[in-house]
Amino acid sequence: MESRSVYKSAGQSEDTTGISRRVSQITVSAIKQMPLLASKVPGCVSLGQGIPSHNTPEFIREAVIEALRSDASIGKYSLQPGIPKLKELIARDLMRTRKIDFIDPETELFVSCGGMEALAAGIATIVDRGDEVILTSPTYSSHIEQILFAEGEPKFVPLQESDGWSLNPDAIRKAITKKTKALIICSPLNPTGVVFSEAQLREIAAIVLEHNLFVVVDETYDFLVYDDVPYFSLLSIPEIKDRIIAACSFSKRYCMTGWRVGYMYASERMIKQVLKVHDAFAICAPTISQFAAAAALSGTNGKDGPGDESVRQLVDSMTRRRNLVCSRLDRLPEMFSYVKPEGGYYVFPKYSMGNISSMDFALKILHEAKVITVPGNAFGPTGEGHIRLSFGAEESELNEAFDRIDRWLA
Amino acid sequence: MESRSVYKSAGQSEDTTGISRRVSQITVSAIKQMPLLASKVPGCVSLGQGIPSHNTPEFIREAVIEALRSDASIGKYSLQPGIPKLKELIARDLMRTRKIDFIDPETELFVSCGGMEALAAGIATIVDRGDEVILTSPTYSSHIEQILFAEGEPKFVPLQESDGWSLNPDAIRKAITKKTKALIICSPLNPTGVVFSEAQLREIAAIVLEHNLFVVVDETYDFLVYDDVPYFSLLSIPEIKDRIIAACSFSKRYCMTGWRVGYMYASERMIKQVLKVHDAFAICAPTISQFAAAAALSGTNGKDGPGDESVRQLVDSMTRRRNLVCSRLDRLPEMFSYVKPEGGYYVFPKYSMGNISSMDFALKILHEAKVITVPGNAFGPTGEGHIRLSFGAEESELNEAFDRIDRWLA
Fold first, then answer.
1. pLDDT attached to residue A31
2. Are residues B281 and B240 in the same domain?
3. Helix (H/G/I), strand (E/B), else coil: B307
4. What is the pLDDT of residue B8?
5. Among the four A31, A33, A400, B376, which has the fewest Cβ within 10 Å?
6. Which B residues 364-403 touch A at CB under 8 Å?
């Protein structure tokens, strides 16, 4: 994990006297370090953290306002696994979108403090010291920290940029050892935007069964796929239901990043175990955010509720932003090459600037062009030489950021 | 830890194949199991989970409503350690209430998903496999799970009921070994309501310095002390600042249990480490709840803001409820003996019913009297033979619960 140490050395040296092994070896993701660094640099434009510019839709906010005035339970703990009504709505939505015959909302789901808590708690539930977990490289940086927190060993399987960052099940199969406990699969993949195909994912399912592994599924960007690229979910394969730990989120689909509400879907046996971690870390997901999530899903039936309309508008808006960012990158072929994202709201260009590390490159852009980006090595070794650009910001801001980059390069 | 296995055996047997060691050995706290069990028993009255009946104060809810209509940032991630304005308000409040000369809000605080996340993340940051952590017994049950999650060894130092559950620093000193890493101190103590004295806590500080330990301080009920009992905080002892990991909460003070917002106060070095865990588990505390917390503290100056008024009303109301519950217990001297709580909103009576375990006793009251309580052994071995009663409910409900218990006993 060479690039990891490069990345860490870019931070300040740390005094870890008395600090546990698990925490000594993890780090705050560069995705969050960059905005903190940037908060000291006045006047930055952000292509950094994945925060869509859009407000949480009004119908959701108004439902919360109504409840704040009429329902005292909105301020109190919910049942620890979540509000039963919300869990029913989640089950209905997930059965529809993933073509699952039946989900028991009482035993096969719990509501978490964002998809992030579901991922961290899920990984802590299955990974012991020394267990190996296979990740694509690049991958979402927090997956790496979550494995290290559980004292497991991240094993990176590189994706080939020349191959559109596509998944190579054979390479994954070759990485399996006796110590392999799980795979982590994120599609659309943060940071590259690749969407893995049904054929590839069915092979992953076969590998999971063959080697008796768990598969942690991060479906944060499930709804956001461009150009009619087909989206397929591992949750649609009933044979691996007992091996799946899936984390889903309201953050991106309903522009609710700050509400911290998501959920886990898994077998009854697994949910029972993960709930112990949820209990020790969170008690319950924020009740007010569970109300908001229930409002969001009440407006969603796959046809014409206000939730569907808000998702459609978001996808349209993100499509325009993706096209804008790609066209701006296309004007800088000397500096950047990239694979066009099929989903999500990130693009992961490779830069041409001698031997400079991605952290130094991102810091240079921050200080010299006043544009926030995220260094590619935060996403695994294969990310070195790249930066991640989020196109969640408004078009005017995206243009401003690229105008600054243009001037900086000139 | 005999009582722990008694408690666990009351649950269903578990299939922990493939589950990590840390999660195999923890459990969902009985505090949360009881409401889940009770949700299958229609018509229960609750003396169980610590949820005050009071709404979140109107001035807080209205401030949130205003922001939901005017400030799009309420729906988005905050900076990972929390909203700077809120952290300034917290620092000001903590300097005033704990008589601390200076707190740097930027480096010595972070906003967490409830006090619970601060506790869990703090313990995971300092406790390694095999480290010993000293707890009072009884203690808040989640402290035990959080130590076990970090693969540490809880070491219980019994409090003497005959001595009013008071802290015995000498007994703590005797429990220290070479493997001791930290103490956990909670005052007012959940579940007994004892408030530890300044003299006792100063001795604890001396022990911490002498043995180079950390002290995890749970101050969830700091504001809720009865009968002019003096409240003293370990945070007021500057000599141990580098050894302190303090978890504080908005949940009880402002009737905001469901909002999941609290914070950690610790040294800059420690905060930097714990933020890594916060990053991997939460990203940030819910932004909407941070807005609510900022509104709460904006109304609090120790004199006559709406926040102070709401806290005063809450203390008055809880004083009446405590007196009511104590007078009802006083009518049942054959069944219950108890120490009158000096703080918090729990009483921890000992029952006289042969050799029945506290879990069986709590289940009997649940099924036969339809009253939710929490079995005492969830709070450590010394809790066996007791139940915890919360008096957060309205007086009519408290009376109804005791009417049922009276009839059940008759």
1. 80
2. yes
3. helix
4. 45
5. A400
6. none
**Dist. CA B244–CA B126, nearest whole Å:** 11
Residues B167 and B250 in one domain: yes
**CATH code of residue B279:** 3.40.640.10
Which of B232, B263, B264, B253 lies closest to B344, judged by CA? B253
Both A113 and A74 in one domain: the answer is: yes
Q: Which residues of chain A have pLDDT under 50?
A: 1-11
Question: Taking the CA of residue A1 as centre, how many other CA atoms within 13 Å lie in the half-sphere pointing to its CB?
Answer: 18
Q: Does A67 touch chain B (CB under 8 A)?
A: no
pLDDT tens, residue by residue, B187-237 = 999 999 999 999 999 999 999 999 999 999 999 999 999 999 999 999 999
Closest residue in A to B49 (Cα–Cα)? A77
pLDDT digits (tens, 9 = 90+) for B158-177: 999 999 999 999 999 999 99
DSSP B65-94: HHHHHH-GGGGS---TT--HHHHHHHHHHH
pLDDT in tens, B99-156: 999 999 999 999 999 999 999 999 999 999 999 999 999 999 999 999 999 999 999 9
β strands within B231-325, DSSP E: 244-249, 262-266
**Distance from C-alpha of A262 to C-alpha of A220, rounded to nearest angstrom:** 9
Closest CA to B223 of B189, B188, B191: B188
Amino acid at B353: M
Do B282 and B311 have their domain in common? no
Are residues B311 and B261 part of one domain?
no
User: What is the domain-level CATH number for residue B311?
Assistant: 3.90.1150.10
Interface contact flag, B125 A256, Cβ < 8 Å: no
For A239-305, strand residue ranges (E) read 244-249, 262-266
Mean pLDDT, chain B, as a whole number? Answer: 94
Gap between the Cα atoms of B164 and B171, Å rounded: 15
Mean pLDDT, to the nearest integer, of B64-68? 98
Does this complex have an ipTM over 0.85?
yes
Quote the minimal CA–CA distance from A160 to chain B in Å.
27
Together in a domain, A263 and A359: no
Please count the other Cβ atoms lying within 10 Å of the Cβ belonging to residue A330. Answer: 11
Q: Which of A264, A298, A332 is the last residue of a domain?
A: A298
Is B64 within a domain?
Answer: no
Residue after which a domain boundary falls, among B298, B322, B356: B298
- Is B9 a residue whose pLDDT tops 60? no
Does B65 map to a domain? no
Instruction: Look at residue B62 and tell me if it is in a domain.
Output: no
Task: Determine the residue type at A392.
Answer: G
Distance of CA B396 to the CA centre of its chain: 25
Please say whether the beta carbons of B147 and B153 come within 8 A.
yes
Query: How many CB pairs lie under 8 A apart between chains A and B?
Result: 231
Domain that holds residue A32: 2-56+307-409
Question: What distance in Å separates residue B143's CA from the closest CA in chain A?
Answer: 8
Query: Which among B244, B159, B220, B230 is positioned nearest to B195, based on CA atoms?
Result: B230
- Per the domain annotation, does B260 fall within a domain? yes
- Segment B24-37 mean pLDDT: 85
The count of structural domains within chain B is 2
Contacts with A, B 306-365, CB within 8 Å = none
Same domain, B120 and B229: yes
Tell me, yes or no, whether B289 and B396 share the same domain.
Answer: no
Which pLDDT belongs to residue B2?
34
Q: Is the pLDDT assigned to residue B347 strictly greater than 70?
A: yes
User: How close A330 gets to chain B, by Cα (Å)?
Assistant: 30
Q: How far is A163 from chain B (nearest CA, A)?
A: 30
